[in-house]
Amino acid sequence: VSIEDDVQTSIRLRAQGIQKDEQEKKKSKPSENETNKKSGLITTTTSDANKTDTTPSNDGKSKFELSSPLTSDLIYKAKIIEKKSSNMMSMWKRTLAIVTADSFLHLFEIPSTIKVQSGSAPEAAFHALMPQLKIPTEESVELQQQQAKTMAAAVAMPLNYALPGSATKPDDHLMPTESIALPNACIYYKDGVGNSAFEITETFVAKGATKVFSKTTTRKMYLRTLNKEHTKDLISILQANK
């Protein structure tokens, strides 16, 4: 089973669970559409199924889908590519590249344990980078509070102490490896047979001891896509957002 299939299955099961909970709590809500938009849910019915990718249910009831953050208007393009530094000994590394509406190129290095390749669906890499979040229940919260009180009494630590492993920050795996300001970057591509790599150089204000010798400094890296056509497409997107 591919990672793309796992992503779709996980989203579908989560959406079905949310729908079941909502139906049990309240059969009808006056402002259901507005509430769903705020929570990141897309509501569809049989009548408007042709406007979405959701398959209508047989009984005509509303179905829910979790919208992907990659569909946000703040994200112009997302693509799985490869990158390496200008160091002679550097190796190509798989990377999730995201071009944002504020003219930045964010690069998220993909661990080798995630089985995706250049050209794969970006949703697959994004889902794999996200940590598995555990939704707290009343029982788990009470248990954690009891454990915290026990430990606090034993070692006199604050009651708001978080137990080891009890929480995971959702941004731990979603910090960009590099972020490039496209207005300050220059792109060089040598059009040749089979060449799908290009060079990108960013100029930025020097910091630390470097600013003694120059007000600005540069950093260079190489990016590579699946093929020549994908490279030209990515370059045009980067240049359009400078």
Q: Which H/E pattern describes the elements?
A: HHEEEEEHHEEEEH
The count of helical stretches stands at 5
Spatial strand order of the main sheet: 6-5-4-3-9-8-7
Span between N and C termini?
Answer: 39 Å
What is Rg? 23 Å
Q: Give the class from helix and strand content and strand pairing.
A: alpha+beta
Strand content: 15-25%
- What is the averaged pLDDT score? 76
Major β-sheet annotation: 7 strands, antiparallel
Helix content: 25-40%
Low-confidence stretches: 34-56, 157-168
Q: What oligomeric state is this?
A: single chain
Name its key features:
alpha+beta
Write up what this structure looks like.
- The structure is a single chain.
- This protein has 242 residues and is an alpha+beta fold.
- Helices cover 29% and strands 24% of the residues.
- The chain has helices at residues 3-25, 32-38, 122-129, 138-155, 228-240; strands spanning 41-44, 63-66, 75-85, 93-100, 104-109, 178-181, 185-188, 197-205, 216-224.
- It has a seven-stranded antiparallel β-sheet with strand order 6-5-4-3-9-8-7, sandwiched between helices. It has a two-stranded antiparallel sheet with strand order 1-2.
- Helix 1 (3-25) packs across helix 3 (122-129).
- The longest helix is centred in the N-terminal third of the chain and has 23 residues, at 3-25.
